[in-house]
Write a structure and sequence with these properties.
The structure holds two protein chains of two kinds.
Chain A: E1 3-6, E2 10-12, E3 18-25, E4 34-39, E5 46-51, E6 58-60, E7 68-73, E8 78-83, E9 92-98, E10 103-104, E11 108-112
Parallel strand pairs in A: 2-11
Antiparallel strand pairs in A: 1-3, 3-8, 4-5, 4-9, 5-6, 7-8, 9-10, 9-11
Chain B: E1 4-7, E2 10-13, E3 19-25, E4 38-43, E5 50-54, E6 58-59, E7 67-72, E8 75-80, E9 89-95, E10 102-103, E11 107-111
Parallel strand pairs in B: 2-11
Antiparallel strand pairs in B: 1-3, 3-8, 4-5, 4-9, 5-6, 7-8, 9-10, 9-11
The chains are: A mainly beta, B mainly beta.
Chain lengths: ~110, ~110
C-alpha cells in the first residue's frame, strides 16, 4: 500500500537548521509530485509548495521562499524539507503529501525554542 | 491568492444527525482543463489529514457513502447524511486549481 513515512520530531534553537525527510513506498516515486504543508499548533493548514519528483524542480509559495529548501533522494524514494535560520514561528507540524491523490505523511513536529 | 471561506466554524451534532459544511472560494475553481479541483479532507484529533472527496463530488474508494460533495465555480458543500462517532474532527476544503493551493480555515465537528 502507498505510504509516506516521515522522520521523527525535532527540537531546535533559533538560528539552527533542520532537515526532515519523507520516505515514499508502494508506488513509483518519480510519477507523482510531493507537496509540503505546514500546520502551526492549533492552527489550520498552509501549503508551502511542491517538488517535481521527476526533474527535482521545486516551487515555493511566497511565504516559504528563502529559508526553505525542498530536495530529493530519488534513489531512496525520499523527499526532504530543510529549514535554515529557524525562527520561533517555524514551530509547527510539517506534512509531506501527494495532495492530488490524498496521501499524507504522519507529520513531523518541529519545535523551535531557546 | 484564492481565499477559501468555510462555514460554520464548528458543529455540534448527535449521532445520526445530518451535517452540512459550506466552502466558498474568492474566485472560480473551474480550471482550464474543465475540471474543478475542490477537495475535502478530515483531520481527526492528533492525526494527519485523511482524504474524503476530490473534484467537488468524487469520493475516494474507502470513504463511506454517507459523505457527499456538491457545488460549482465558487460555492461548495460537504454533507454527511448521518453523523457517526468516527466523523468527529476538523474538516477542511482546499483548492488545487490555482497556485498557491489554499485551504479553508476548517470546520470542527463535535459530538453532542
Amino acid at each position: 500500500q502507498i505510504q509516506l513515512v516521515q522522520s521523527g520530531p525535532e527540537l531546535k534553537k533559533p538560528g539552527e537548521s533542520v532537515k526532515i525527510s519523507c520516505k515514499a513506498s508502494g508506488y513509483t516515486f518519480t510519477d507523482y509530485a510531493m507537496h509540503w504543508v505546514k500546520q502551526a499548533p492549533g492552527k489550520g493548514l498552509k501549503w508551502m509548495g511542491w517538488i517535481n519528483t521527476y526533474t527535482g524542480k521545486p516551487t515555493y509559495a511566497d511565504d516559504f521562499k528563502g529559508r526553505f529548501v525542498f530536495s530529493l533522494e530519488a534513489s531512496a524514494s525520499t523527499a526532504n524539507l530543510q529549514i535554515s535560520n529557524l525562527k520561533n514561528e517555524d514551530t509547527a507540524t510539517y506534512f509531506c503529501a501527494r495532495v492530488g491523490q490524498g496521501y499524507w505523511g504522519q507529520g513531523v513536529m518541529v519545535t523551535v525554542s531557546s | 491568492d484564492v481565499v477559501m471561506t468555510q462555514t460554520p466554524v464548528s458543529l455540534s451534532l448527535a449521532i445520526g444527525q445530518p451535517a452540512s459544511i459550506s466552502c466558498k472560494s474568492s474566485q472560480s475553481l473551474l480550471g482550464t482543463s474543465g475540471k474543478t479541483f475542490l477537495n475535502w479532507i478530515l483531520q481527526r484529533p492528533g492525526q494527519s489529514p485523511k482524504r474524503l472527496i476530490y473534484q467537488v463530488s468524487k469520493l475516494y474508494s474507502e470513504v463511506p457513502d454517507r459523505f457527499s460533495g456538491s457545488g460549482s465555480e465558487t460555492e461548495f458543500t460537504l454533507k454527511i447524511s448521518r453523523v457517526e462517532a468516527e466523523d468527529l474532527g476538523v474538516y477542511y476544503c482546499w483548492q488545487g486549481t490555482h497556485f498557491p493551493y489554499t485551504f479553508g480555515a476548517g470546520t470542527k465537528l463535535e459530538l453532542k
